[in-house]
Amino acid sequence: METEGYRFMDQSVHKVTLVPENRSVEVPAGITLREALSLLEVIVTAPCGGEGTCGKCTVKLENGSAGVTPLTSSERALLTSEQLSAGIRLSCLARVSGDTVVSVPPASRASEMRVLAGGKGRNVPVQPAVVKTVVVMPPQTLDEPYARLEHLRRCGALRADLRADLEMLRRIPAILEAGDHMTAVMHGNRLLDLQPGDTSGVCFGLALDLGTTTVVATLIDLTTGRDVARASMTNRQTAYGHDVVGRINLTIEKSDGLETLRRAALESLNRVTEQVVDRAGIRREDIYEATVVGNATMMHLFLGISPASLGKLPYIATVGDAVTAPADEVGLNLRPDTPVYVLPNIAGFVGADTVGAILATSLDEDDGRVRMMADIGTNCEIALRMGKRLIVTSTPAGPAFEGARIACGMYAAPGAIEEIKINGDVRCKTIGREPPRGLCGSGLVDACAELLRLGVVDWTGRMLPVTEHDGGLPRFLLDRLTAHENDLAFTLSQSDSGRPIVLTQRDFRELQLAKGAIRTGIDLLLEKAGLTVDDLDEFCVAGGFGNYLNEANAVRLGLLPRLPSGEIRFIGNGALVGAKLTLLSSVMRQTGEQVARQAEHLQIAGTPDFQMRFSEAMLFEPQT
Amino acid sequence: METEGYRFMDQSVHKVTLVPENRSVEVPAGITLREALSLLEVIVTAPCGGEGTCGKCTVKLENGSAGVTPLTSSERALLTSEQLSAGIRLSCLARVSGDTVVSVPPASRASEMRVLAGGKGRNVPVQPAVVKTVVVMPPQTLDEPYARLEHLRRCGALRADLRADLEMLRRIPAILEAGDHMTAVMHGNRLLDLQPGDTSGVCFGLALDLGTTTVVATLIDLTTGRDVARASMTNRQTAYGHDVVGRINLTIEKSDGLETLRRAALESLNRVTEQVVDRAGIRREDIYEATVVGNATMMHLFLGISPASLGKLPYIATVGDAVTAPADEVGLNLRPDTPVYVLPNIAGFVGADTVGAILATSLDEDDGRVRMMADIGTNCEIALRMGKRLIVTSTPAGPAFEGARIACGMYAAPGAIEEIKINGDVRCKTIGREPPRGLCGSGLVDACAELLRLGVVDWTGRMLPVTEHDGGLPRFLLDRLTAHENDLAFTLSQSDSGRPIVLTQRDFRELQLAKGAIRTGIDLLLEKAGLTVDDLDEFCVAGGFGNYLNEANAVRLGLLPRLPSGEIRFIGNGALVGAKLTLLSSVMRQTGEQVARQAEHLQIAGTPDFQMRFSEAMLFEPQT
Q1: Which CATH class name applies to A13-108?
Q2: CA-CA distance, A462 to A619, in Å (whole number)?
Q3: How many whole angstroms separate alpha carbon B249 and alpha carbon B69?
Q4: Looking at domain A129-196, which CATH architecture does it have?
Q5: How distant is the Cα of A145 from the closest Cα of chain B, in angstroms?
Q6: Which residue of B has its CA nearest to A331?
Q7: pTM of the entire predicted model
Q8: With contacts defined as CB-CB under 8 Å, which chain B residues touch A305?
Q9: What is the pLDDT of residues B602-620, one digit of tens each?
């Protein structure tokens, strides 16, 4: 009987018992031991994805081999004779054919890690692409004519398909000469390094978010999955334009524009990397992998690929796939051969950052609920999960929430007003409790919502002059109505130097444009799926201001939908969480790539009545 | 019903008809169309090896889809809707379930090529790793938000798993900007280049043999499989020692020894490459791949990997696997990213050259016969095929056949005596019919065999002085017996300048050492398999002098076994034929890698009675 691809006519059910835990599960004949163990909540590590090629998902049969299918030829090839005689099997190949008792060696267990995103987050097995394995390599005899690399594979129980770049191959003889106790650093099936002694406890990864405005680095201990340090700073590219359009234009207008922007991004990324390395007190050489998220334009600029096609109809990326390239080619100051993994793009304006946010919110999975996620920035990306479908779109929200084009707007930096309550008086809370300097995104939302609620602004977004209020407005509000550069304005506060901090009519219009764009995106995406807001079970908000946004005010403005019974979750920087998930788990990486390939993309600007819908969405619900 | 991994309970037999050829074959239900077509002697191209991932093995169903299994999801993903509605299927996935009629589009047919090796050679489908595909890429619309690379894949029907290195990705936008008609150069799933217009007719490969003594380059037109030019020269490494041991020692004794030897090899290889490029009148940039053979030491030196471990017990290579590295890292003057494929080694002294010779002699296949191959050089590698077993060994033949340590020895260059007949007189034939300058390998064999036959030398290899012949030897032979540097010698001829060309007693001992080593290898390998010379159905001789060796003389000396009924075939440079086969056919490449992994290696020096066997093998059969 053939044992590869063994197929069961057998409909019986058998018991799989895990020792020493002594937990059992009844499973149908024919499922793999790895599947059975996952039912017992033990994730067996499988760098090859359970394809029977890496030889890492070993388990031990504790009461003989009667309850499992016969040895496959792959197992014979991948396991040593000692392992075979000790009852070791590959759990992705051995299938249940009777009652069986197994144990899982510690090395085969993938530890689980909860990665938080807005309080909830998701559980992932810690299974990074980079793995360190200790190898003791005794001298060879004449009876073992294997090449040194093959001997290393056998002694270290390394993957049978292990390979090494020429540079690494050239370094091997001297390293093997130095001693027989060493640590192999593997990236997938590639030998990244071979280090004297046991260095398996020291293994770091770097999750990078190259935002249009801000860059963030998180250093992660890949042996535990825990964050070790974080740093952020303004993207130095902002010196060349605040939005992606300006930057794309620079690459078209100036022959060195692409290189200028690439270097600016790298300066920022290398700076935050330096900071996390310093803060954690580690050696830069102990970082073995980096993952990078950002929107499609940022990813093109980072990789040095012209983003010109993203700047004109039909707005397409040059590369949508995930890209892995060595650090020295990319320009990151890490070990030259460190793999840098750039998450895939879905479409020109739905980039790697959205894939990251989708992973952060588990939107890649169908959990039976209807869920939506909006990543709000200058560009707002929206994703909808409904059953097997995942539909995404993007809409140009504009830079209002980042302070641009707002009279007193500013980034969410110390001194920015981030909360406003108007109740008999105007109370402003600033970031870092510092004297007010301007208005950031969440403050803008609060200001607009409060002025709308109080009738300072009507449902069309018009700020009424004092003369039109005819007594309907309390004095303390009327007193704040003023003029600002030929525009009507409402004074919120004033700075240390006495400069008034105002919200102008034009600011309100900017908010309306942003809100109109976002709501049009949300509504058209729902329509595309044949749904309405009432069908939503959950709505996640990702993006810079996510954590600080006043939910009631955002709903009042119509920026966020009013969910009948569901939940609005603020998850903060979902893109960065995604970068972290793909750094921690190869499975998440595959999932992200699948998302990029399979998501349906809705081009809302192409919707026939888009313009009309957009104008309508700029208006507000009548206030009661 | 599940269609992936569709399994047949059905025992029926169906007819598959190929049109327009109108040939048919009856096949069991369940085999793939590709398998069925191979029975009709049509090889359908499948760069992915028939794994259903490349989408290239298209065939067309000519009378509907009733006779084949339903569409798989992979086919849905890889074929366009136009293809699907035209009845196009992937022949590695569609399985026979009834009578069916198919046609094979020209693009899907792998052309066959006979690669000669000693008159016979083997047929291989021309299926190089490098493939050029013409792509016409119309502009995209808003409804096709695919990244440019994805659009390229779809328009060119390129592999779904196509990827490009960062350097290539950076070049893509400008190339696509320049026009919509282009040619994609693919190496496996990797995009090597994208060229304006249709360049598909221009595609060359380079097969390189880095011998210890000689380097050879053959330029091959990958669109037809034909040789275009060939060049050879002495390996410049010979300036640093004539055998591998001397070169290994140089790398140990001098800190720059490895680099010196690497550069010397590269100078020679780059020189012969220049010559073939000039002779063929092509552009160097049109070479898209190189394959390289040589012994394990040469391959290590070529790659810049220390061969030190090959120079001491237990004589092991650092790397045994096939290595693919870009030309610029390797140091070959080709396009910087040209993949250079180095064939795998079996053991320290059974290298890539032997793998090549095994492919050249089809020894990788079990054809039911018992076959042996010996590649005779300074080191002699021997391989034995018997049923499912392939056993290899190596034995130090010494440099006698290359002229070293022979009084009047020389390489097989113009003026070398390559044939000798003694019959009433001594007649010598030289290479190029030039005046005699010395003795090359085949001349040495002839000289020794004739002297043995005539009794000038006895069965122990002792050259008898004139005084011991007491009348048994004709006068013309006795007259030629003389002394040469305190040694007995036999004068064969004389040079233009009157210098005698002799064979000395010591030369004869050198031949005996070489012959003893080779025969011990042959005999012990046969013994290991439980066979004798009488079981051999075929014996192939590869190596520099193969084509010119007098078979009867080699058998007389016992250098080659006396086959009862079988055939001795001289195949010349089998290693180079192997390099060519792997350049022409990805299948041959996989086969070579399998050979390297699966061949059993016999370390004859480790055989207990090796020394005694070796001494015995130095003697000759009594001459009649």
Answers
A1: alpha beta
A2: 10
A3: 62
A4: Roll (3.10)
A5: 6
A6: B166
A7: 0.82
A8: 169-170, 172-173
A9: 988 777 788 889 999 999 9
